[in-house]
Structure formats: C-alpha cells, structure tokens
Input
Amino acid sequence: MPLVYQHNINEATRMGVWRITEPESFFLEKVPIKKDVTHPHKRLQHLAGRYLLPYLFEGFPLHEIQIADTRKPFLEDEQYHFSISHCADYAAAIVSVTDRVGIDIELVKPAIEKVKHKFTTADELAFLNGEYRSFLHQFGLEKKIEQEFLTLIWSAKETMFKWYGEGQMDFRRHMQLNGAVHFSDDEQITLPFLFTKNQMRFLNVQARMFGEFVLAWLHT
Ligand SMILES: CC(C)(COP(=O)(O)OP(=O)(O)OC[C@H]1O[C@@H](n2cnc3c(N)ncnc32)[C@H](O)[C@@H]1OP(=O)(O)O)[C@@H](O)C(=O)NCCC(=O)NCCS
Output
C-alpha cells in the first residue's frame, strides 16, 4: 500500500506519508504538473507530494496552487494551508483548514555531522552531550544517536522554515531549542523551540522516526 502513514491530528489538520512505487502516469491522472522538473525522480517526488493533498482532503483544489517568490506553494484564498516534503522514495504532506503548517522528511546520513556547525547552537549540542552519551558509547550507539539527533534538529528547523514561509532565515539565530526534547511512549517526539524571526513564538515541533527517516511537522 503506497500510503505508509496517515495521522489525522484533529478534524481540521491531517498528514500523510506516501512511499513512491508507482510510475509517473499514475500521478499524472490526478495531478496537473505546472513546474518544469526535468530530473525523472525529482518529478516523481513532486507529483507524489501533490497527489497526497487531495488524498488527505478530497476537495483540495490542486489546479489552484500558486508558487510564491520564496518558492513556497500556496492557495490564494487560503482555503487550505499545506506543506510538502520529499526524500528518496517518500513524499510527505500536511494539510490544514485552520492552522499554518510545515513538514519535513529526511534520511539520517553520516554527512550531517560535517555541517552541524551551520545549523546548531551550543545549547542544542549540549543536550546531545548530556550524561547518557557515555552510556550509549558502551553499546556503540553513540554515533547513530548523534546522527539521528542532528537530523531531528535539522528537520525541525526545515519544518519551521516552511511553516514561516517567508524565506531568509538564520537557522542558528532565529530557531533555538528551548528545553528538553521529549520522547513519549507512543514514539512521538516533541522538540520545544523559541522562534524569533520577525516575531517571538514558542513552537512545539513534533517528530517521529521511521527506520532511517525522520519526519517532523508543525501546526499552529
Ligand atoms: C525550501 C527548502 C526548505 C526545501 O527543503 P528540501 O529539503 O530541499 O526539500 P523538501 O523535499 O523537504 O521540500 C520541498 C518542498 O518544499 C516546498 N517549499 C519550497 N520552498 C518553500 C518555502 N520557501 N517555504 C515553504 N515551503 C517551500 C515545496 O512544496 C517543495 O516541494 P515541491 O516543489 O515539489 O512542491 C530548502 O531547500 C531550503 O531552502 N532550506 C533553507 C536553507 C537555509 O536557509 N539554510 C541556512 C542554514 S544552514
């Protein structure tokens, strides 16, 4: 089944993840392609992301999507707020009738360690360097957990970037982890952030691990 995850957050807000196994023709039956995407896999990802929107809310008017100067897709009348992400063979989308939204899906990769200085603050790294690090080290889990944690932070910040939608953000200055990351029994992760670009907001980004993937989302 291509829809691998659906979460109806409440009556007004739904999200889903699609595993892309279909050919382009499957998506083209429903999705009007306006954007010139030449790379075949990127085009499939783009189509699958759009396909999810009316899958989540049947009346979603795909043909009315416009693209802002920032490249954020939107509906002029804001009948629905939505956000899309894709990575490898997965496309994720969140749609809301009432809330501003953001979503991001990322594959955990070792390369994240090389760029961590570009998007993390000292406090965020301090959380990672807490007491449990030596415990994990005994089991050889330290590297894996570090990469997962960094990907969670990165994905949460990409989610807030999309939720904000105006582009031009400093990932270290404008979004800072503001408290402990909470891992709940149902495997949902809550990351509390202080967001300071043009406004001061406390935002709880939600996340989940799916094997080697991180899925993060936000609705307010
Ligand atoms: C726009 C951006 C968030 C997209 O993320 P990505 O990981 O490359 O790609 P994703 O698959 O997750 O998301 C792509 C989707 O995001 C959406 N999108 C693009 N630009 C957007 C924007 N400015 N705001 C909200 N959503 C946007 C689109 O729906 C796009 O998919 P589509 O073209 O098929 O519709 C990313 O390229 C970016 O610019 N990030 C900010 C980088 C930055 O400022 N870094 C500085 C600190 S290191």
About this structure: Residues 3-99 form a domain with the Ribosomal Protein L22; Chain A fold (CATH 3.90.470.20). The chain has six helices and twelve strands. The CA atoms of residues 102 and 162 lie 5 Å apart. Residues 46, 49, 70-73, 83-86, 104, 118-119, 158, 161-162, 165, 167, 169, 171 surround coenzyme A (CB under 6 Å).
